[in-house]
Amino acid sequence: MKGLFRDRTLGAYFSLGAACLGLLTAIVYLIYSVSVKLFAPVVFVLLLLGAIVGAVAFVTRERTLPLVATACYAFSFALHISDRALMFAHMATNVYGMSERGAILWVVVLLLILQCIVVIASVISCFMKQRNAS
Amino acid sequence: MLKKIFRGLTAAWLAFFVLCVGMTAILYQSHHYVNDFLGTKETVIKNDNITEESVHYKSNYFKNGLYNPETRAYTNEEAAKYLEDKLDFIEEVMGESITLLKNDGALPLSAEETKVTALGRASADLHYCGTSGSSMIATTYALKLDAAFSEAGLTVNPVALSFYNSRTEKSNTAASGGARIGETPVSAYPSDVTASFAQYNDAAVIFFTRPGGEGNDLTLEGGEDFSGSQLNLNQDEKDVLELAKRNFDKVIVVLNTDNPIGIGEMKDDPGINAIIWAGGFGINGVTALGKLLNNTDGMNFSGKVNDTWAIDSASSPAAQNAGYYTWTNAEEVSDYIGHTSCLTYVVNAEGIYIGYKYYETRYEDSVLGGRNADSTTGAFASENGWSYAEEMGYPFGFGMSYTTFLHTLKDVKWNDDNTAATIEVEVRNTGNYAGKDVVQIWYQSPYTDYDRTHGVEKAAIQLADYEKTSVLYPASEADETHPNSQTVTVEVDMHNCVSYDSDGSKTWILDAGTHYFALGNGAHEALNNILAAKGYTTDNGMDAEGNADMVASFEVETLDADTYSVSRWTGGAVTNLFGDADVNEWLDGQVTYLTRSDWTTFPKTYDNLTASEEMIRELACSEELTGYDYSYGKYTDAPEVIYGSHDTNYSLSMLRGKALDDPMWEGLLNQLSLRDTALIIGVGNGFTEAIDSIYKSETYDGDGPTGFSGTIVGQVYNGGKVGVKIYFSQNASCATWNKELQYRFGYFLGEDGLFLSKTSLWAPGADLHRSPFSGRNAEYVSEDGVLGFEYLAQQCKGMSDMGLIPCPKHFAFNDQENGRVGLANFFTEQYAREINLRPWEGAFTEGHAGGTMSAYPRIGLTYIGMSNSLLNGWLRGEIGFKGYVLTDMAGSSAYMRPVESVKCGVTLFDNNNLDQANILEAAAKTDTTLQKAMREAARHNLYSIVNSNAMNGFDENAQIVSVLPWWKSALIALDVCVSVVLAAFVAVYAVAAVKEKHSKG
Predict the structure, then answer these.
(1) Could you give the strand order of the β-sheet that contains B420-429, starting from the edge strand earlier in sequence?
(2) pLDDT at B668 over 60
(3) CB of B580 closer than 8 Å to CB of B859
(4) Most CB atoms within 10 A, among A48, B205, B244, B379?
(5) Which CATH number belongs to the domain containing residue B491 in this structure?
(6) How many domains does chain B have?
(7) Could you tell me the CATH number of the domain that includes residue B201?
(8) Residue that is last in its domain, among B575, B592, B623
(9) Is the CB of B34 inside 8 Å of chain A's CB atoms?
(10) Hey, is B325 helix, strand or coil?
(11) B696 by DSSP, 3-state: which?
(12) Which of B348, B345, B346, B327 minimizes the C-alpha distance to B336?
């Protein structure tokens, strides 16, 4: 276990942090969206995949994995925005729940913010080295 | 190092690339919205030799090429005149709509009374229209109170107004985050505000308002700052009244709302000198209020209320069943059906006794005696048993003026078959101010033993028709151009007066007995006149003596169940259609409808119904679960559908003016592919698709009874660019009782359509003010069916005469917002025909509406889009409607199932993606019945479009050219550039990675 963290750099921890936050976000998304019957599987799967890849990137020496994780996070984020576009249109007209009944605005906004943070953290990790020279 | 940098740049650019592509996808999918917003198009009509004859609808404002489909050029002078006339029109309408309910002589204000204090939070937050969804208007540059009143020479206390502007209280509904009346507590008034009263003490003008709009009903369940009814004054508002009475000699209350506020004690309070009702003002209509207060420019009140204003609005029978009610076994229902658009219901247990029909009928029975009219059941404001005087604030049709008028019934002439009466009334100005008045013709049919035996309910009084005078002048000012009197002719169509008998004759009937026409300033005065004609007086319990001279009677010897048993529009037989909507057909005896024969049947609230197994199956509304054929056998004999034929090469424009069954239509429709047909039906969320095979361009529509969105480019009003959506509430427009103004509203909407190149407007709102609590009453017309009929006929005609397709909504029975999606609506056939469907009848027939938006709720248990009785029996069969039937927003195809809906009679989906089109196309490949239904749907859609302004500029020289709008080009360019840069970063990163590997190796 000690060896896992031995020569990891700040960049690696950014990748790990993004993965942890991504996993948390994926879990929250799953619970929320299933409960309101607005679950988009691709959003969840990509977010989860990104978290897994990001975690693997922390563990292994494969330096392209942070890039792959970033791609997963970014696609998940974009698809989530697209999926919720109608909800924001309803917010603008102050009519809630016409065909989006059950959607909770603040939860969606929170999820999008978390996803945005995950993307940014993953991008930052890609700019940094992942290992100290051993 | 290089590798790290380019890995990072690749990651960052990849994220950017994904967002760009995602944004492009969203915008492409919503391309019609984007085009609408930017004013771009994807198909244009190119016509270098446009002929005058091809311009079927001409604007009266924009002559220099507006109708040229390419240039749409106009001058600033034309636009300025257009805006100026619209603003004048808004003020004119509000001037004739704002209604004076009480005046003890305090009004009009004298020339010296110029300094007023506006009280109430609403004085700084005026009610311009609804506050959500399509109820809204563009209020950014709406005129504020002080600016508006200054046009009448009135100065509004700036200290008080500034104080209210600094406050954050706001009225709100339960659905928008908490029901609130939002009046500023008097305890919060700083001393400088109360001290300022002395300088502005010619009058206190108190503003009370209420919220409301799409998705937002008002409540009877209490809220943050009130208990019980949101339409009664709360303590903060009562405190404002007391504050005003203590500090001002003149107290004027303005009820600025489209939902009738409970009058309560204001009516008899001597400290309140005047009460005024004003509906949604629109962007500048509040100027009319100022001018009415002091008779500036001779402006005099002439509005009449189009709803009942009770002492307590909760006393409305309909209000007892106007809420969010779910089946007790809701989970079982949704589990079986597979979605949740099936959980709510409402029982219209009041039957025909909506609004004044309740209060006035019960009043007559209390005078005649019997039927438990004076029991305590249904008494809300009465102390000892129901009393009209204690329950009624201001009756339907009532309104005061600064002057007085004398109405004299001159003559009643009948047509040959006695189905229409021409009634002449002389109106004379007997007062000291010029003004207009409304001739209201009221009607009473006898309540007979036959009616009681067969459950035919009978209102004691009903509106038959109306007309408004021109301006009439006091005798002292009268001359040839300033008349003192006018003879008004009103044509009463008895088809709007007869009763529906669903039990005995199963059609329309005219009872045997004595019938009456009466004049009156509102329903109550007319009824008192009839009672006087029958020999009743205040000794019998009437609250005022009537005038028998205002009444004409006629006798019907025997019950007539033949004359009105055929549709006046199509000649087809009229018989029962809505038996399934009676809840007792499903839950035998569980509901008691209100009956005049015993007023103790005043409705109770039905909030704990359980759906039976049979009902659950009906609620499913899917072929799979019910086993029904939702085409109802309509297409059994229809020929097989032909697709993609080249036998003809018709352009859609060639079908203009052709009857719906003209053989040319068959040739045109044969040219369509299955995909074309699916697109014509499946995509209708504010636009319709271009279809090359029939040379049809895309068309655009607008939403809402308050008009189109958009901007009158370059025009500045009140400090900013003004939008097009600036009109008053439709409810306010109705209260003018002026058919010419109502027509002209439609005309202006038609001008807007030409200006914006819009073909249809989802307006007017035609649902009923069933209860005072519906959030969308601003968008609808009245509690009365006949007033709705006449209003909608006028406005729709104004629109269609300018080539704009009226698409009244929401068809039908969408009288509340609570739980509207999938709401199971239970009602009696008599109520449906006499009241709820009457406004629609006016829109579709005399109004020539070419479309309608169907509603979210159900007829009984059947989704309206699958209701054979409504869509085929009534709409196409009895009314002869030829236009399109659009769904409401079709986000849920689980409920508004496209295959079943189209088979029944829906022709267009309010949808902005291809989901419905794809479902229809896939299903039609193996379903010939669906193919035939789709063909008919396409026919109706195209029929409406071809007879609209969409055909302006179409002649043999016209070509439809596809263009790529600039924003799509920009997006493509952006995506390409981003992709190239990304590729470059990836390449550099890959090279750096390989080099690093080799150097280490």
Answers:
(1) B405-414, B420-429, B485-493
(2) yes
(3) yes
(4) B205
(5) 2.60.40.10
(6) 3
(7) 3.40.50.1700
(8) B575
(9) no
(10) strand
(11) strand
(12) B327
In a domain, B740, yes or no: no
φ, ψ (nearest 5 deg) of residue B546: -95, 180
Selected residue of B5, B10, B17, B18 to mutate for chain A interface (largest A Cβ count, 10 A): B18
Which of A93, A96, A70 shows the shortest CA–CA distance to B817? A96
Domain-located, residue B691: yes
DSSP letter at B495 equals: G
Closest CA to B918 of B678, B642, B583, B623: B678
CA B946, B947, B950, B953 torsion: positive or negative? positive
Domain span at B411: 400-575
Cα B496 off chain centre by = 21
Which pLDDT value is given to residue B216? 84
The answer to whether residues B467 and B612 belong to one domain is no
Task: Read off the amino acid at residue B926.
Answer: T
Number of Cβ within a 10 Å radius of residue A44 = 20
Residues B653 and B801 in one domain: yes
Same domain, B470 and B612: no
Number of domains comprising chain A? 1
Mean pLDDT to the nearest integer, B444-473: 98
Specify which residues B862 forms β-bridges with: B859
Specify if A67 maps to a domain: yes
pTM of the model: 0.90
Show which of B538, B558, B575 is a domain's final residue: B575
Distance CA B680, CA B689 (A): 6
Phi-psi region of A94 (alpha: psi -120 to 50; beta: other; left: phi over 0): left
Report whether pLDDT(A99) > 50: no
What residues does B155 pair with on adjacent strands? Answer: B115
B378 conformational bin, left if phi > 0, alpha if psi -120 to 50, beta if neither? left
Does B535 share its domain with B622? no
Q: The domain that contains B878 carries what CATH number?
A: 3.20.20.300
Residue contact B133–A70, C-beta within 8 A? no
B3, B7, B762: best mutation site toward chain A, by most A Cβ within 10 Å? B7
Please list, in sequence order, all residues whose beta carbon lies within 8 angstroms of the beta carbon of residue B246, skipping any fewer than 6 positions away: none
Among chain A residues, CA nearest to B896? A99
Buried b (16+ CB within 10 A) or exposed e, B686-717: bbbbbbebbbbbbbbbbbbbbbbbbebeebeb
Backbone dihedral region of B589: left (phi > 0), alpha (psi from -120 to 50 degrees) or beta? left
- B347-359 pLDDT tens trace: 999 999 999 999 9
Helices (H), B459-570: 523-533
Is the CB of residue B103 less than 8 Å away from at least one CB of chain A?
A: no
DSSP state of A82: H
Task: Provide the shortest C-alpha distance from residue A74 to chain B (in Å).
Answer: 5
In a domain, B943, yes or no: yes
Residue B54 pLDDT: 84
Residues B530, B612, single domain; the answer is: no
Tokens of residue B736, six digits: 């003018």
Domain that holds residue A92: 7-125
- Name chain A contacts of B324, Cβ cutoff 8 Å: none
Q: Are the beta carbons of B440 and B397 closer than 8 angstroms?
A: yes
Task: Provide the 3-class DSSP secondary structure of residue B665.
Answer: helix
Q: Closest Cα to residue B621, out of B816, B864, B938, B977? A: B864
Residue B670, both tokens: 């044969």
The answer to whether residue B406 sits within a structural domain is: yes
